[in-house]
Design a protein that fits this description.
The chain is 48% helix and 23% strand. With 139 residues, it is an alpha+beta fold. It has 2 domains: 33 residues; 96 residues, Alpha-Beta Plaits (2-Layer Sandwich).
Length: 139
């Protein structure tokens, strides 16, 4: 009797161990998976202009910023708009811009590009404050 009981229990132990091993391997595989890295590095910029800034000056700044896409190859996409949020949390920032890059190198090249520097010279006299945040887009 003891031998028959052992022969029934022994395959069950092996099966249990195999199932536990497979479950452990599956869990390890899932845990090891890293989310795919985004291919979109977003450079988000918001401007608060000085009260003395004239509408024509602001329009000139927007046009110059938009034209950087033609002048700096790393900029893949350029979007912009003015604040329309009803939440009243804008802290005086009126204009938002999103520049899309494929890599940190392209973004870094943009930051030191002579055309970007020239844009900063145009913007400086009418800019009160700027807010910038960069992040890899996630879905």
């Amino acid at each position: 009797m003891f031998g028959a009981q052992q022969s029934i229990t022994h395959p069950m132990k092996i099966l249990s161990l195999l199932l536990a091993l497979l479950a452990g391997l599956a869990f390890a595989a899932v845990a090891a998976e890293k989310p795919a890295r985004s291919t979109r590095l977003l450079h988000v910029v918001s401007f608060k202009f000085k009260a003395a800034a004239k509408p024509e000056q602001i329009e000139q700044v927007v046009a110059a910023f938009r034209n950087l896409k033609r002048k700096i190859p790393g900029i893949k996409k350029f979007e912009w708009g003015t604040n329309i949020s009803p939440e009243k949390h804008d802290k005086g920032f009126t204009h938002g811009f999103i520049l899309t890059f494929k890599s940190e190198k392209e973004r870094d090249d943009y930051l030191v590009h002579p055309e970007h520097k020239a844009f900063g010279q145009l913007l400086g006299p009418i800019l009160e404050e700027v807010f910038v945040i960069d992040y890899w887009a996630q879905e």
